Amino acid sequence: MSSEPADPSKKRFMVFVYEIRQEIVWAEEFRGRYTKSVTMSDGTVRTIELTPMVRDGRPVVEFNDTGGRTYIGTVRVNTGTKVNGQLMVQVLDVDDRDAERGETR
Fold this sequence. Notes:
Elements: E1 12-19, E2 22-31, E3 34-39, E4 45-55, E5 58-65, E6 68-73, E7 79-84, E8 87-93, H1 94-101
Antiparallel strand pairs: 1-2, 1-8, 3-4, 4-5, 5-6, 7-8
């Protein structure tokens, strides 16, 4: 077994996007990169970009929210969550979840 992490850009992820007042995106599967513009309840538009990658030797998902950038970890936890003001983004690693269950798609 290799100690190198699998290439996250080849894995399947599911994204959930919530605003404190409303559910915006529920369970959209993606692979590679995910981009979505969402309208908040106050009328402002935010653009979310999610890019799976390896950073400092660990698989992460880069979270770019209208210019602000941070990282959501996926190591040993099949979900990562990031809250940015009124917006919460949750990412589920579908491939790891399926591997744990012994399922194949």
